[in-house]
Known about the structure:
The chain has two domains: 20-297, Rossmann fold (3-Layer(aba) Sandwich), CATH 3.40.50; 305-405, Four Helix Bundle (Hemerythrin (Met), subunit A) (Up-down Bundle), CATH 1.20.120. 49% of the residues are buried. It has helices spanning 53-71, 87-96, 100-117, 129-145, 174-183, 224-235, 250-265, 297-302, 307-315, 327-344, 353-364, 369-385, 393-405; strands spanning 20-23, 28-31, 37-42, 75-82, 125-128, 149-152, 155-158, 200-204, 220-222, 240-246, 271-277, 280-282, 285-286, 323-324. The strands form four sheets. Strands 5-4-3-10-11 form a five-stranded parallel β-sheet, with helices on both faces. A four-stranded antiparallel β-sheet has the order 6-7-8-9. The longest helix is centred in the first third of the chain and has 19 residues, at 53-71. It is of the alpha/beta class. The radius of gyration is 22 Å and the shape is elongated.
Amino acid sequence: MHAWPASEVPALPGKGRDLQIHDTATQGKITLDPGPVARIYVCGITPYDATHIGHAATYNAFDLVQRVWLDTKRQVHYVQNVTDVDDPLLERALRDGHDWTELAERETALFREDMTALRILPPQQYIGAVEAIPGIVPLVERLRDAGAAYELDGDIYFSVESDPHFGGVSHLDAEAMRLLSAERGGDPDRPGKKNPLDPMLWMAARPGEPSWDGASLGPGRPGWHIECVAIALDHLGMGFDIQGGGSDLAFPHHEMGASHAQVLTGEFPMAKAYVHAGMVALNGEKMSKSKGNLVFVSALRRAGVDPAAIRLALLSHHYREDWEWTDAVLAEAEARLARWRAAVSRPDGIPADALVEEVRAALADDLDAPAALAAVDRWVDAQNAADGDDTTAPGLVSRTVDALMGVAL
Length: 409
């Protein structure tokens, strides 16, 4: 599966700062020092109802991570998956009378278009769950053969008790885990499971549903968590720098994935930092596919909204913050974009070297995009209030905003 084209990232003078990021597992801010190649895995979409603003906010956050690392003169190895076979996708296809593969392909293509428009840097590997199945099956067999998985009516479940570190990502108690498991694709009430929280690794073939050869597992398809584990281990290995996604993935998805990987390899941890973006609401409720209260990037673009304004609207909220999309948020972003473009369109201006360092410092401090925007706002206000004679300043500001925040002026 191919990703989308990368926009050019301008080079800035000097060198950026190492990233400090909030780690869900340690429940605090840590400084990451990845070495010459920074490794990041971000969980991708289940391709239906793409791309809503909640998606865009999440991928914008991890795009900032890439840009901060690139500014430190590191390379970035970024991997993202597509959950192109899963119960919600199959249910949507059945509801709407569509072939599930065509639905997945159409929504993935739309997602690519939206990411390109928003100038989100693409992953080096963009892997669908279906194409990963040949690598998933041996992992499930290894877990089963090691006694970390068991069969129940043809399905294969992972035993969470096989990982002594289970629970160390989300820090939830058993009852909270059970409630979230039921809400987020698990089956804690299924009779016969050793532990209600045990997640499915391999679902035996069901009538009328797609299935694949599972070798000794029998025909079926993979569970949700093992898909990402197989892709991440294959392309990044253990101990990569960031496992990322929305805050609703901390449990069960990232918790279960970490346990799968740690039992498979005997190593700990799967990722140095588990980083989670906040949820976006509309009309007082979390924006979600199940509720249908979605604002789509493609619909905004069709209505003539500049993608740079959409991106500024996302950047105006800290990535870990839960916030609400409103017309006022977008209007403020459009006004800011107009002010910034007018300010950098002048042939000269006030010096901007200090601004570069302010933006770097803000983003290196747990991706504080609102502080970075405020720094540019101050430069713009000063630019409008004075007659500067630095002919390089407007171009430097434009390159800084583009390189570090992905906004083309």
